[in-house]
Amino acid sequence: MFLRSVFVAGTMLGGLLNSAYAAPTTVTDVTGREVTVEVPAKRIILGEGRQIYLLGVLQREAPFANVVGWREDLSQADPDSYAAYAEKFPELKDLPTFGGFKDGTFDVEQAAALKPDLVLMNLESKAATEDAGYDDKLAQLGIPIVYVDFREDPMANSVKSMEIMGKLTGHEDRAKEYVEFVDQQMKRVTDVLAKAEFTRPKVFVDRAGGYTDDCCLTFGNGNFGEYVEIAGGQNIAKDIVPGTFGTLNPEQIIASNPDQVIVTGGNWEAYVLGGAWVGVGPGADMTAAHAKLKALSERTAMTGITAVKTGEIHAIWHQFYDNPYYFVAVQRLATWLQPQLFADLDPEATLKELHERFLPVSYRPGYWVSLND
Amino acid sequence: MTDTAVGEQGRGFYRALVLRRQLILLGLALALALSVCVDLALGPARYSLGQVVEALLYPGSVDDQVRVIMWEIRMPVALMAVVVGASLSIAGAQMQTILNNPLASPFTLGISAGAGFGAALALAFGVALVPFSVEYIIPVNAFIMAMLTSLAIYGLSLRQGVGSETIVLLGIALVFIFNALMSLIQFFASQQAVAAVVFWTMGSLTKATWPKLWITLTLLAISAPLLARRGWQLTAMRLGDAKAESMGVRPRALRLEVLVIVSLLASISVSFVGTIGFIGLVGPHIARMLLGEDQRFLLPGAALSGALILSAGSILSKTIIPGTVIPIGIVTSLVGIPFFLYLILNRRAASW
Question: For the sheet containing A260-265, what is the strand order?
Fold first, then answer.
């Protein structure tokens, strides 16, 4: 505790020294707006709590040191990560929180009272923010808004957002190091597939399988659907579901006869008590997860499909879908879909390295499980 | 003209009328049968008609996948469409009758909204209104809230000076309350849960299973005869409370009895398939336009027309975008409303 206080004090002192050199810098955010900000920004408001995923990489020892307020959505959306962060950085519980959990419920008056240098907003809240005129109001107070994104289009925007945030916080080197790591990890999949001759197994992505009685939610040509294609599979819903999210007729799954089924899961005990969902995620109970995955494979919609006969049914942490650590999911999918090509790829090692080199919280296993395990 | 001649003429007219109505009912029944057959024959797994018939007649002798698709996927959905369509339509018809108001339906009286609120509580926060019901938490929650809504409406209607117009207003007030509570839940819930709540409120037949079908069917089979027994009294109710009373009907008691039966019908249906608001309003109106007020024809007519709309909706919901199923509530409204508008704009005599 003492050491941490010393460290926090040290960072703050460093910040004070740095602030002597604070200079207006223009950054281009993910929407293409040019915003001028005094960097490094010392007082930041997180328009969405999950932005700590990125900030944690940049300020590993004290991710909340420069955060003066945030939207309280992390505890709801990703309770496991929230618990891990709260354990290590109990000060996060004292941070002022903003409004509800929905976009556009941001309280401008409260934000202004905190005198931030910068408000970081997520891309998906742009419409609501501009609709309510918050951007104009904050501009009149001289508070810039910068939009980042790691949820709408994680593949394209996570890396860009990391670079923007690195610039804003004065940790450009750290951001660069991380971006290089991500590129290198993605290349371990894409480079191999670019050179190889392979057949794409048919894959059914069971989005949040077991979360509702309805079978079956899935991804179209985005998100996990996209990950599957990048990892060398063929998403059966690609030509059926028009957007990113959709529902398949259970009969379609039997008719398509997928070779593999990927169930996304997470700890949804707070929503569906004792539901059929597969509770994978950091520190998950793997025996329970395996049993639930087995139960899901016995649903009507899975009757007689190849994946059930071969046991190629896997569950993976649902939160990878809107998370800057998506490359780990892509690697894991690649090893499932093309085991011969990726015999030497170890996604668990990647995830461990990510935690050891970049993240403020330590690695806990449990992000995936296979029926054949 | 002599009295006998008038009598003969009247009898002839009445016989022709009854015959015509019987033929309309027969036509509706045939259309429904055809619709169910088409519903069973169509699907993304393109089986030939021969395979379909074989799987239906000899489930033991066909491939496992064919059997499962026919008996576990297509059949419960196709039959659930019929049973839920009939239940909601009967419920709507009798609500309109006892409240003497063309706007009454499970939807406008707040029963659907109450069910939606119960389901949303379960979907967003995992709140079980009955502690031991974890496995069926969503339908049980929906059912309890729907029944509470009906009881509230009934309780308030017992107060002195509350007429049938007031009951409809009470229902509309309840709809607003539940909508506000629903928005509140969505405001606090996670993205994932909001998506689930929104999807639930669109209504979907893919949730159908055999046990759910049997429960709904049993209730329909019990309540239809109970309502048919009150047939002439209900017909008399349409003349107004005072006239009905002069014919020996006790309007308050009858209203209570019917309200309880139709609340059960609507609540069970809605809690299993989600909000399908349109059927309960339009099914009975179509039946009334085709068959008139006489309960002997209105009751089966409403059941058949409701079942037909939902069955046709079920076919469309899976064929508009092959491979996916568009929520049935959306389809029935989009397809049924133009038809309904055609009927009300072209009818000759006003029934209200």
Answer: A234-235, A202-206, A260-265, A313-317, A368-370
Select the residue of A100, A255, A268 nearest B188 (Cβ to Cβ).
A100
**Do residue A300 and residue B134 have CB atoms under 8 angstroms apart?**
no
Distance in Å, alpha carbon of A168 to nearest chain B alpha carbon? 29
DSSP character at residue A370: E
Divide the 352 residues of chain B into consecutive groups of 10 and give the mean pLDDT of each group: 73 90 95 94 86 87 86 93 96 90 85 90 81 76 90 80 79 92 85 81 87 94 94 88 87 86 90 86 90 92 95 91 87 79 69 59
Q: Which residues does chain B have within 8 Å of residue A249's beta carbon, measured at their own beta carbons?
A: 43-44, 206, 318, 323-325
Residues of B in contact with A319 (CB under 8 A): none
Shortest Cα distance, chain A CAs vs residue B263, angstroms:
24
Domain annotation for chain A: domains and CATH numbers: 12-171 (3.40.50.1980), 188-370 (3.40.50.1980)
In the prediction, which pLDDT does B352 show? 60
pLDDT tens-digit map of B289-304: 889 889 999 999 999 9
Closest CA to A209 of A248, A152, A178: A248
| A265, closest residue in chain B (CA to CA) | B192
Q: Can you tell me whether residue A46 is helix, strand or coil?
A: strand
How do A234-235 and A202-206 pair as beta strands? parallel
- Pairing verdict, β A313-317 and A260-265: parallel
The most distant pair of C-alpha atoms in chain B lies apart, rounded to whole Å, by 78
Query: Per-residue pLDDT tens for B212-268?
Result: 999 999 999 999 999 999 999 999 888 888 888 898 888 888 888 898 899 889 989
Say if residues B254 and B234 touch (Cβ distance below 8 Å).
Answer: yes
